[in-house]
Every structure is written in structure tokens, then in C-alpha cells.
Amino acid sequence: MKKINAVITGIGGYVPEYVLTNEELSAMVDTTDEWIMTRVGIKERRILKGEGKGSSDLGAKAVEELLEKTGTKPEEVDMIICATVTPDHPFPATANIIADKVNIRNAHGFDLNGACSGFLYALDTAAKFIETGNKKKVVVVGADKMSSIVDYTDRTTCVLFGDGAAAVLLEPTEEEIGFRDSILKSDGFGRVYLNMKAGGSAYPASHETIDNKEHYVFQDGRHVFKHAVSNMADVAVDIMKRNNLDSEDMAWLVPHQANLRIISAVADRMGIDPKQVMINIEKYGNTTAATIPLCLWEWEKQLKKGDNIILASFGAGFTWGSIYLKWGYDGK
Ligand code: UT7
Q: Which of 22, 256, 259, 295 is catalytic?
């Protein structure tokens, strides 16, 4: 029997309309366009407005586009995984809410929290279900409404994040394309440097947690930066080595979009030409689980069947990893 490979057969994406610019942020906190552009590389980010709107609203739009583009009927989807750190509610899973909104019924569905590595963790999980023959059509969504956990009086975090979602369809193939390899890691020592302290079982919401602003993202940026550069570059270089890829074999690097300086350092270590690195941080900022699929969504037309692509991420946990794919279809 031939080996079953898992291949991405389509992408859908969605970013909300509202554009939050560096100029607008400069009127809210003590920051400047110059600081944000030179230290991080973000010009603007999208924000989801509207009472009662959550990550599922972003995710549902992305999945709707995905189903339409791939000609997939909702009833054909047998699994949906949503990577997010900003679920609509602690439970039920945002994957279930997205499924309901796009009319996917009776599919195996759950959320996965790998923070900024969430999309890679979810894609890896989905690929295993396809490769074993257990599932035939799996939707993997990265969706985060980061504006719901950002303190817009804290200049060290509010300039960094944005809202967005993107989704891919994973299907089986016997061709030598699709998901090839993954290196995924985590180390909980890093949990103190990037987290949201309250709202879970350790510190449930109380007047005190709200007064202490503990329902917002906390980040010790310098510490995270240092680990992000070395860990992300290590796994990206390792996956190239163990698959005998050198920079000339590579079509694209798709890095998590947290900081342009981190992206450049990783690309440098891999020896990849900057023109082969997908970068859209300037327009969307850090959308956590959505950054990597949003890049694939934007670059889809330029992708060719057989392109060697490495995805790489680093995020809260700490979690980090790399995935090597051979792209499955010519962009259209
Ligand atoms: O996606 C999940 C993983 N996250 C990451 O990978 C993020 C990793 N970290 C980073 O990207 C960077 O550390 C940041 C962009 C968060 C911060 O950049 P930095 O170059 O590391 O700045 P810093 O934290 O060392 O702060 C430098 C200075 C400080 O002032 P002092 O103490 O030197 O007087 C900050 O208070 O910049 C100040 N600062 C700002 N100034 C203007 C911090 N935020 C701002 C701001 N505008 N928005």
C-alpha cells in the first residue's frame, strides 16, 4: 500500500476592516511610528469591532472563503481544529462555534492552544489524522482576536498585536507532496515571560484581577526576543539539514510575524534570500495563531506545486517549531 501524504488543497483568510495605525496609537500611548517601525516593523493592524464578536467570527469568515474556493460542502468536512489563545469562551471550543456558523455538522472538532505556534501544532496534528487514513477533509483554522486581551494603555504590548484568521484544507494524496516533516517543541520555563495571568482556574476573574489588569497580555519583550531568535532559527536550520535542503532548494520561508528583526535573523541563519521570505507584519502586526496561514493566503497566487516551504514559529509557553511542506498546487 502506498503511503498517504497530507496536502494543503486550499486557503481562506479574513482580516477585519478597521485599520489601527501607528498614528492613532501615538495619540493613545507614548509611542511613535518611528519607534514601532524600527523596533518591530509594524505600520498598522486590523481590529474586529462590534459587541459580542469573537475569534469565531474571524474564523468563520476564513472557513467560508476556504469552502467556497475549494468547492467543499460543509458536510464533507470530517474534522476542524481551531488554534487560538482568544477563544470566544473558555468553553465550548471556538472550533465548534465556527463549525456551527459555517454549517459543518458532526465533525470531530476541538481547539488547540499553542499560542503563536498554534497553527503549526494544529497542522501537525491534522496531518497525522490524514496520514493514518482516519480523516479525509480536515480544516485547520488559526484565529485570534488579540484586541480582546490587549491593554490599550500599555505601550509595550498594544502596538504589537492585531486581529485576523486564516484556514487551510488538508486532504490525502499518494503523490510525494504536502506535509513532509515537523520539529515541534515547548518549554514551560518560558511561561513567566509571556502570559495572561488571570481568567483561568488559577486566578479566576475577580474585582482584584481586573483592578490589577491581569486579563491582558503580559510580555517581557527582551527575554522573549532572545529566545525567539535562537529557538526559531535552530529548528528551521535543523529541519533543512535533516531533509537535505540547502538554501537553493528552498522556495519560501513562512515565519511567525512577531518582529521584523526576529524574521530577518532567522532568514539570515537559514541563508535564505529576503525575497523568499513571506512578510506581512507591516499590515497586520502579530495575529498570533493566524500569522502563518495569513501569509500563505496572501502569497497563494505565487505558489507552485512542489515548492519547498518551511514554516517557523515561536510563542508563549514557550512553544516553537518548524514544518517542512512541499506545496500541493499551482497558485491561481
Ligand atoms: O509572538 C509571540 C512571541 N513574541 C515575540 O517574539 C516578541 C519578542 N520581543 C520583541 O519583539 C521586542 O522585545 C519588543 C518589540 C516587544 C520590544 O522591543 P525591544 O527593542 O526589545 O524594546 P525593549 O523592551 O528593550 O524597550 C526599549 C525601550 C524601553 O525604554 P527604556 O527602558 O530603554 O527607557 C521601553 O520602555 O523602548 C521603550 N518602549 C517603547 N517606546 C516607544 C517599549 N515600547 C515602546 C513603544 N514606544 N511602543
A: 256
